[in-house]
Amino acid sequence: MHFALRLAAFAALLLTSYSDALFIPVKRDMLCNGHAALCDRKYGNTTFLGSHDSFAVSTSVFALARTQEVDVPSQLRRGVRMLQAQGHMNGGKLHFCHNTCGLYDGGTVEQYLKDVKYFLDRHPNEVLTFIFTNPENLSVDKVWKPVFDSSGITNLTYVPPQPVMSRGDWPTLGEMIASGKRVVVFLDKGAENKTDPSSAFILPQFQMVWEDPYDPTDPKWPCKVDRSAGPLAPSQQLNLMNHNLNVNLIPVGRGVRLPDRLSSPRTNGIRSILKHAHNCAPLVEDRSPNFVMLDYVNVGQGLEAVNRLNGFAFNS
Ligand SMILES: *[C@@H]1O[C@H](CO)[C@@H](O)[C@H](O)[C@H]1NC(C)=O
Ligand SMILES: *[C@@H]1O[C@H](CO)[C@@H](O)[C@H](O)[C@H]1NC(C)=O
Ligand SMILES: *[C@@H]1O[C@H](CO)[C@@H](O)[C@H](O)[C@H]1NC(C)=O
Ligand SMILES: *[C@@H]1O[C@H](CO)[C@@H](O)[C@H](O)[C@H]1NC(C)=O
User: Fold this and answer.
1) CATH number of the domain within which 157 lies
2) pLDDT in tens, 170-179
3) Looking at ligand 3, which residue's alpha carbon is closest to its atom 5?
4) Mean pLDDT by 10 residues, the chain (316 residues)
5) Maximum C-alpha span of the chain
6) What distance in angstroms lies between residue 134's CA and the mean position of ligand 1's atoms?
7) Which end of the chain has fewer CB within 10 Å, C or N?
8) Is residue 276 part of a domain?
9) Ligand 2 centre from 285 Cα, in Å?
10) Which key words are in the record (predicted)?
């Protein structure tokens, strides 16, 4: 009896050490955006999962202006590493809104950035990109930059060594993480005209990132350069795939387009995303896209598709 107990205790001890050896991950600090291989990969050679109008969250099918069903912290936990959003002035403060703040008001940009910073502070080995739009041409120096400062996130932002970075010029994710400058900020317009040197982290998107047509309605995912600016050729810029399918309610002119929630399991499936990437590849010297931007990031296999585009066979 006594001997049997001792034997059991010994066996338990053995099992514990064995399972520890098997399951305790070593060198976790060597992961960059979840993968050791990405530490040596240049930012410009990486594919990131993106969230379209990331702030426009609702679970109600009647909220027609929604594009997401889970909030920004949940999107980040699910692997989103590029956040897109639209800035509008509302009551004297910069808000993220969908077309107008009357249609959908996602709250202040300051609070949004604070929420993202909270996540980044707790996940020090993650590189994140913002691609914001500035439809009201609000001043970068006087409106946008102060909000970054008051949220506390400016200290994490990356300031490139030269005004225009080609895709090969970017540092590796490992270098960005080591320097603590691991947030890249693009703005669609106005950033080319900033004058305050301390706004240098707000980068003119179309000089460095081109997009194919936005609000697409064709599930065959044709790809062409839609918005891009010089001096670089699009093939030397980063590229963003607008992979958010819309239904056109009134197909006259641009019509009235709404995010197609019913098709989203297929749209956000691996086949559909890889097909779109394949269609864009000839425009970028047969590379993968840099940003795969989706509606309803909680639906489908967006992260698995992005992992494949980064050359990882498994979602881990
Ligand atoms: C913003 O500027 C662009 C030109 O850069 C102009 O076409 C557009 O009308 C302006 N929008 C507003 C709201 O001022
Ligand atoms: C800014 O970030 C650096 C790391 O990159 C950190 O050491 C420093 O404490 C931060 N400063 C502030 C004011 O948060
Ligand atoms: C930025 O400046 C250029 C020329 O200097 C001008 O054409 C353009 O409209 C300006 N854009 C904004 C958003 O102010
Ligand atoms: C990164 O480089 C590899 C090897 O050239 C290429 O297959 C892949 O498409 C590139 N990805 C991006 C996003 O540039």
Assistant:
1) 3.20.20.190
2) 999 999 999 9
3) 193
4) 47 42 50 96 98 90 85 96 96 92 90 98 97 97 97 98 97 97 97 92 98 93 94 96 90 78 94 98 97 97 97 70
5) 86
6) 9
7) N
8) yes
9) 38
10) Signal
Q: Are 172 and 43 in contact (CB under 8 A)?
A: yes
Phi first, then psi: give them for residue 209, nearest 5 degrees: -135, 120
Give me the DSSP letters along 113-133: HHHHHHHHHH-TT--EEEEEE
Residue 40 lies in a domain: yes
Share of residues in the chain with pLDDT > 70 (%): 89
Confirm if 83 and 133 have CB atoms less than 8 A apart.
no
* Cβ contact 188:87 at 8 Å: no
Q: Cβ distance 66 to 56 under 8 Å?
A: yes
| Catalytic machinery residues | 52, 98
Q: Does the beta carbon of 180 lie inside 6 Å of ligand 2?
A: yes
| H or E segment to which residue 207 belongs | helix 205-208
